[in-house]
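worker-03 picked up job from queue 'complexes'. Input manifest follows; two sequence lines, order preserved.
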Amino acid sequence: MRIQVLNKLQAKTVLVSRDFIETFRHAPKKILLNIGLWRKEVNIEVSEDLSADIIGVSPQLFSNFTIPENLTFEVRIKDRNLIIGPLIAFMPVSRTESLTPERLHKYKDYLIHYEDIKGLVFICGTDGMDLNTKTIKGFYYDPNEEDGLWKEGVFPYPGAFYRKTGYSKRIHEELVSVLGDSVFNTYFFNKWELWEWLSPYPQARQYLPHTTKLVSIDSLDNMLERYKEVYLKKIDSHKAKGILKVSRSEKGYHFIYRLKGEEVISDRKQAAVFLKEINSEHDYLIQQALPIKKHENRPFDFRVILQKNGQKKWGCSGIIARFGKKESIATNFLLDGYALSGYEALQKVFKLNKRDAFLIEQEIIKACRDCSELLNRVGGHYGDLGIDVIVDENLKIWILEINKLHDHKFPLYALEDKQMYYKVVSTPLFYAKALTGF
Amino acid sequence: MFQKVKLIPDLTKHNTLTLHPEQKKQLGIDYIQVIWMRFATKSAQLFIKTSTELNKHEMSLSFNVIKELRIPLSPIYEMKISEFELILGPYIGIAAAPTKEKLQESVHTLSNYLYDYHSIGGAVLAFSVEEVDMDNQLINGYIFNPETSKWDYGTYFYPAVIFRRVGMKREMRKHFHSLLGACIFNSYIFNKYEMYEWLSHFSDVQSFLPETILYTKLGDIHWFLESHSEVYIKPIYGSQGVGIIQVVKKGDCILVRYRLEGKNYEHYYWSKKEANLFFKKQLRKKKCIIQKAIHLFKEKNKVVDFRLILVKNQYGEWEDLGLVTRKGENGSIISNISADGQAEIAEFTLKDTFGLSEVEVNKLRTKMSKLAITAAHSLEKSGVHLGNLGIDLALDTNYKLWILEINNKDPNHTILMDAQAREKMYQAKRLNMMYAKHLAGFSDEVYSL
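worker-03 finished. Artifact:
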């Protein structure tokens, strides 16, 4: 179905074909026209010679925003509502200005399956939102152009909102108040919140390394009584930088930096001062160290890409095993490391046969799905997560971190797997479409 | 996830279920004193007691009830509350063989459906059609024992769901259907002509089907050859390329090609009469279809086509588990790998053999997946309950997509093994069971948080 502006029409009027009006159970005179969240009561007129796939609108009707005439929309009818869609917003940046043609071009892969999505899909920055007119400035995808082209416009609030950047509380509150649960990636929880939210539930707790807040040396002692080694990590940082490994021996407390080496503090009071110092700059947490399995002396972990699909169900779009630099404690494979598919890595590292590797892989997916589903029940609305998983030397599965802004290009530069990449970038839009009700 | 429990027989009390108080609370039956417990088609009224001496993953059930309902004790069960009943399950049946003897030989191979027993759970009964006692509603069959990974023979009542992998007489299908409702898949094995006929009512599938007619008399072949100079004659129930005859009209001459006992044959006939002698001999008593020949894409004289594995998952939705390319033997009319062909994952073939770019591969692959799912939905709209399909697709020389065949008679997904994708075959079998579990009312998405 396409929308066409017809100059002859009076304001607040839409024109439809005879065939179309018959899809209503009772031929309505006034209907509620819905596009995204915008809606208006309009008169409906029937034309004998209008094509069945066209809805004519008066020029005044959409004067505040852009509804391109050459896009194909889907239409739903509910009682006397005529709903046109889908309208989907994708917000990957904060400044509209940064959406240069080159930058926009990079997002064309997200629309690889536009033919199945249809409707109006636009990219915007946080500053493109106009809270007064309830419109958003951005760029919509025009499939008619060779290679797909993005065109500027102002659009009504959409039926679903896919967020992939930080934004202010004010914008968040506005979006949630009008879109409700049709916004996804709502809140960027930190490492501590992840533990706080999920650890009360046994289904999730079994996969989480024990975590506490670093309050004083007592909290460290407490953890070191339970575990031989613990990590001190910054609550807000996702980088391996700043991670300290701590253990205790008769010599005292051993603090091991990733790069700077080891520092031993024998005196408890002095250690307490040291902790106070680092804790004053950043909030730290203490985390149980896991019996990490190494391969060729490289640390390794899995990145599990878990996304909601067009059926609104969690699906695994890919599992990538990352092998870090030799002797390192980080798995950043770009520095002298490499990557393998998760299934391959399980066979290679743990010497598993295909069947057992399959079963462990299923268990990894289940762990990630249970935790992600739980997140959606206790803390926010997520549909596109990158989960860092460790399988320890006892084949036990641990979830280390859940990333809300994970890098979609990962399958490309880790495995050169374009098919996985296309799946990763196209799945969130299928989910967004499902959220709009289309 | 539902709570997982192990049953302990209670020899001291009658008609009583004893559980840990915390478990009772988690089930949301704090105030329940008496309840009906259902095990597939049977139920019993029980008094509920609690005891802190039990561990949270156990419950003890009076022995008289275990005996009465014939509940096997080795499985790990899940429990759920539905209306006024406590349901113990899932209890899944696999109709796996026609006879007792055949089942005895093959029952151990069914363990590959239960590698992930941890996710499936419950009682799984493998049985042969011969050992169903419809008068007493009893089955002699094998229950999977998760501790030993062996199958224990015994006599049980009917399961809640039947995954049907063998033929079953109409009378028995009717019997099960009236007792279990729509919990039998596959409910019906359609033949090649039914598939064509049913799907031709759906405009979004019809255009992907090569034109087909039912063979009733010799004249049909010649009539069909008039409008399509090249056709295939296929047995209506056949599979794996057995019994296919290629017929080509070249002027007045009729060329037939076929394969018999591993060899390819080719004959020319200079008149209809002559050809009819051949057809008469070949098609005697056989039910066949005549199908317009599609000029399939060939690589170095080898026919290339695809098998798409489509199964229902734990949500009851169709899931595409992979597309396998089959390359035929040189000059053969069929691509079937059981006839010495080769198999590989289709994404490679589409790129290397068909010369598509990565984007094109992704788009075509998605289109194939969508078409297969639409076709499956359409078949179900025609009235059959399915869960496990192998769909044969092909591209012609113009890269147009075709549906060649849809196999619902327990398609053998071992082709995934031939294509070095063993894990996908594991997944297919796992999902067959997860779908059965879903039908039994134990959906995977429910959490008891």
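worker-03 released lock.
Chain A has a mean pLDDT of 92.
The CA atoms of residues 80 and 195 of chain A lie 47 Å apart.
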